[in-house]
Amino acid sequence: MNEVRRCRPNGLERHRHRLPVHLYRWRLGWLLGGRFLLLAHIARRSGRVLRTVVEVVEHDPVSGAYLVCSGFGERSDWYRNLRARPRAAAQVGLRLLRVEADFPEPGEGAELMARYAARHPRAAGAPAGCPAGTPVPAEEYRRLGRCLPFVRLVPRPALPAAAPLPG
Question: Topology of 12-103+149-155 in CATH?
């Protein structure tokens, strides 16, 4: 798989990316609606519970699965942690879920990205090499989707309503 390399945020940019985690801590995650979820995962080396907020690419109402994407590629810590330990917890709005990570094939990622871009063209942005402000062909998003790692978070038996996320 082609690896997507993007610079990780640092300094003030990192604080801006971490703000949604604090919203969930303050029990205000519902403000982000169903487009984002808080993922509590186990660090592959230290075993600590880490939290990150990721954007939901797609939600399957039948199975309850949420599809998310690692925009920083396979080097993202949360992605690598799920690869090592696929059991995690997620919070969407006020709803807590136990989840198990499943990793779709690149071909499925291509279709996921094309559907996502059709629903949210501004959030999807223009892939590299496409001039800003011009319509982007769906095939460009499919090409990008084959390079990005996607994760399907499949719900396991429900958590009790008052149970906090692990950690």
Answer: Pnp Oxidase; Chain A (2.30.110)
Strands 87-92 and 49-59: unpaired
Mean pLDDT, residues 61-70 taken together: 94
Read off the pTM: 0.76
Q: With contact defined as beta carbons under 8 Å apart, do 114 and 77 qualify?
A: no
* Domains of the chain, residue spans: 12-103+149-155
Question: Using alpha carbons only, what angle is made at residue 74 by residues 108 and 84, rounded to the nearest 5 degrees?
Answer: 95
pLDDT tens digits for 72-83? 889 899 999 999
| 160 vs 113: CA distance, rounded Å | 33
SS3 of the chain: the string is CCCCCCCCCCCHHHHHHHHHHHHHHCCCHHHHHHHEEEEEEECCCCCCEEEEEEEEEEECCCCCCEEEECCCHHHCHHHHHHHHCCEEEEEECCEEEEEEEECCCHHHHHHHHHHHHHHCHHHHCCCCCCCCCCCCCHHHHHHHHHHCCEEEEEECCCCCCCCCCCC
